User: Fold this.
Amino acid sequence: MNLILLFDDDFISDSRVRLAGRRLQHVRDVHRATTGESLVVGVSNGRVGRGTITHLADDAIEMDVVLDRDPPTPLPLTLILALPRPKVLNRVIAGAASLGIKRIVLLNAWRVEKSYWSSPRLAPENLRTQSILGLEQARDTVLPSIELRRLFRPFVEDELPSMARGTRALVAHPPATEECPRNLREPVTLAIGPEGGFIDAEIASLERIGFAPVSIGERILRVETAVPFLAARLY
Ligand code: SAM
Assistant:
């Protein structure tokens, strides 16, 4: 936790917060902070600054907060992600949030196992928790929006064209002959396939609406590795 993310109901006055639970535990056990020390804080979807500890007890910590700067610039990347297996989902969401990705669509695809859609990890509270962990890691405050789309075709045909308008539309696909571009200065909508990859018909549907299949080399990466690799390569 490189930043303590604060929410409206943490504030007991305009500039003072009171925290308990996981954040208190972390300040005590990991930072081993004491009264008078100051830590990096940020307000959810707001500014970043410092919190000076005014009171530290077993059940709560209080801090005086000064917010004096904006959070880091978001990555202009919309991620269309075939729903990964539940075990991987948490890591991918936290990782994407820490990279500064602000819009994620979790999409069905032919090779996504149906059972993944009933995972409790898809619950909004879990997706929010994973996003918060990623933001705290990266000292960001702006939560990503995460949408679920259980039907590939209607999403790709009816929604994705307008979502991708004005962006470079790419689908990461290992057999593609075109290399993934580097160091772009434009927004990108990037589709990433499931563990078994997108099937040909799915790639064809994406190509029909302007997505270019691109490869990042002969090494086939796991989704949780492909996401940061692609984000770093694109920007
Ligand atoms: N056997 C699958 C295939 O050939 O498509 C591998 C799927 S890979 C584990 C999961 C996703 O990560 C892929 O669908 C793709 O979006 C992305 N990916 C992984 N390695 C890649 C590479 N070398 N080039 C392009 N995309 C890659």
Residues 172-174, 192-193, 195-198, 215-217, 219-223, 226 surround S-adenosylmethionine (CB under 6 Å). The longest helix spans residues 124-138.
